[in-house]
């Protein structure tokens, strides 16, 4: 047992997976939770996702030693304002938001003195959401990035780190701003691009009579899965990581124009060299153990 | 048996899969082949990919009832020029190129009268290539698009169609130019975009000390797999489907700029609505049976 009482605010994919992963290893004596809608609360209750479901965040955080905000990034500020006055003195508060600096700015002002804030971001997810989407092995072998400020006591950071490691994750620490820049490249911009491509295809579908869907080949198929990700979550990611997203998008457009020009000019050598270079990166990712060469990308749910 | 003697020019992923799929069902009495390099020919011989491996295309097509060009799109013209004079009268010649109008323009002038040209494009592939990449089930349940001209006799088109259907494919016919427009959306532009994104990340990797690879999250990981596709094949695709690729890229850029502007202006409603629309497309693809909801996208090699 690492924390006696854990409270999860939000009961979706990430919260559900935390509840199941923590239970699997006995990391908490009690896991309680709450969600915005009665429907989610009822489902969570019915499937026994947590030990107790509360109607409000205020009730849920009472006496909790660890509180994790598992709501969309844009909802963090309001939730923090709501629970701030009800947090147990000396408790740890964390979040799982996909953007870190904006969450720190939104949450910190609402926290009473003595409460320890350790922001986190597990690099794990699927395109599914809601209380029934979670599974105990979601974090296995995935990175979880912590972005604590200097104010967080070292021993508390170590304890929270242990919590994630025992849920299966590989934990690393970094600066929030740096996190947001790296994630803009590896996750946020790829998502906006996939959304755009699928949007273009949707427009054309009306022209080509659904052939775009019918003949959807590799490449596009993967894009549609990415572009099926939760609209609320991703709207909030882009609105809250604006600077880094726009910077990387700028670089992307620049490169795309260069390749477009090569196609127009028939410059096969430039295209060949570019494609050869990008091919090598795949090798690096396989070597880093962040993916497998198997057709399922190591994403199989093993529970 | 549908064809007595089948000759494959090129012995890579697609040719190898044709050889194995045809053998599996006894669709040909003899399957022979040839490849450009001695190394590929030797490997094909060693693993028994075809019944006989020839040193030159001229030798390979001798007495063949069906000849399939399985080389990169940009190599089709030279191969056709080489084999043209050696084709058996009345034989069927086909290709598996990912672009169709350019291949028709490149191959047709070299074919003697009486030879029947039926271009084909199986919508199936992996990011692997070479003689050892093929497998018998590659075409199972995948579309194969035929783009014959009016000159092709109906009964010969039906026979060739049967050949692909018995290899496991769902066969459809369409106009070559229409094929190229549809594929630009569903395959070619998604590939150039993935290549671009991975190229951008590669530039930044030098800045962020390989963190981009280390923390590569869903989204980007899928892009790297797409951008690991064969550089020669894809160079040829873009050079030979220039018009459609550039047209779709133009639309893509326009949409991307609209989303970029929404991020800059903080227009969450536009982003949310856009992401909700693209999410629905995924459902259409699952319904069309072109993908599965399983984490492996139904891509598991079942042999
Ligand atoms: N999915 C991923 O791939 C992934 C990966 C890493 C991190 N994250 C981050 O994890 C967080 C949760 O994501 P998730 O995938 O678990 O989402 P999810 O399955 O959609 O669950 C979100 C939860 O937040 C609640 N919620 C939504 N809007 C709210 C609001 N305005 N106020 C209060 N509660 C609200 C929802 O309650 P109701 O069900 O009652 O509406 C639901 O319980 C997000 O910050 C996201 O950025 C996601
Ligand atoms: N891979 C896919 O996803 C996919 C899907 C549908 C259609 N296609 C189309 O199928 C065709 C073959 O692709 P593949 O994936 O099978 O490629 P592959 O595995 O790389 O095999 C290509 C074959 O063509 C030969 N070749 C390459 N350049 C040549 C040249 N200049 N002259 C003569 N022969 C040459 C190669 O010989 P060596 O090995 O001796 O060099 C090799 O045997 C391409 O037109 C492609 O557009 C591919």
TrEMBL record, chains A, B:
Residues covered by the Prephenate/arogenate dehydrogenase domain: 4-293
GO molecular function: NAD+ binding; prephenate dehydrogenase (NAD+) activity; prephenate dehydrogenase (NADP+) activity
Swiss-Prot/TrEMBL GO biological process terms: tyrosine biosynthetic process
Amino-acid biosynthesis listed as a keyword: yes
Presence of keyword Thylakoid: no
Enzyme class: oxidoreductase
Record PROSITE patterns: PDH_ADH
Reactions performed catalytically: prephenate + NAD(+) = 3-(4-hydroxyphenyl)pyruvate + CO2 + NADH
NCBIfam families: PRK07502.1
Sequence similarity: Belongs to the prephenate/arogenate dehydrogenase family.
Protein name (database record): prephenate dehydrogenase
Natural source organism: Pontivivens marinum
Source species taxonomy: Bacteria, Pseudomonadati, Pseudomonadota, Alphaproteobacteria, Rhodobacterales
